[in-house]
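Sample pair:
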Amino acid sequence: MLDCYRQLLERMPAVLATVIQVKGSVPREVGAKMIITDAEIFGTIGGGAGEAKVIQAALKVLQTGEKQWIEIDLTGAPQRETQGICGGMMRVWLERWEGERAISLTRQILTQLESGQAVSIVTPLDSDQSPYLSEDCPNQAFIETIEPPPTLLIVGAGHCGIQLAKVAELIGFQVMVQDDRLEWANLDRYPNAKIFNSSINETVAQLANHTQLYAALVTRGYQYDLAALQALIHRTLPCRYIGMIGSEKRVRQVYQAIEKTGIPNKKLRAIYAPIGLDIGALTPEEIAVSISAELILVRRGGTGRSLSESLRMID
């Protein structure tokens, strides 16, 4: 969503298509967005004939400025025209964003999301009023609270950290890297990350207001793990995830040392260590995939089992 509003800011005038209602089986969720301009499209609301219908209508909205909603029928009902057979219905709101008011609103949204804070956007559906920020919802309005993108703090800028940053960005994480070694933690090695060369305590303090903070400890040594765990566990806003790389022996040693500082054992049980899912990963690239899979599991929910497991068990 952060990237969506960045793209919107760069591409105005543009039509923002937002899924505002769904029923049954559909390809995208409420709040999913797509940006349509004369020259290009960014994002998707599900593809196929339904999306094509939205794009066609959006190009008209781009010219007229007359906001409207489009219904996508995916029921496959034989008695009427439908756009698919998924089984459900989607309603999509189309609104042109342009001018100083829209630019200012978009910048406000970006500022809040980039600082790790949620933002509530009200889109009136029954008047000429433009979208605005508020937590109050008038009649005939679509209100959505957008959470900031999950932030992954990678502690340790070595080989695994480099690969993890690449994969984490692909799966939608805002990546930050902490390491006191400037020759390792720099924009040449991490071109799309925010770099912290300060201590872990100073770094965590700067991220105090981030509500969606995930941390992956891929450090070069036991003492760095210990310092990072102490800083992260004591955050006022709990981390959504703390994972620590290392063998079971190293993990136990770190736990034994940190228990002596007075941190209760129940907090240690919330740490994912050794980090990642068991997929037999060996190389830094494979380890990055293993860790990223666990990040998705924590963020989205799931079992971690193979999706084909139930079918393969059928005789």
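The radius of gyration is 23 Å.
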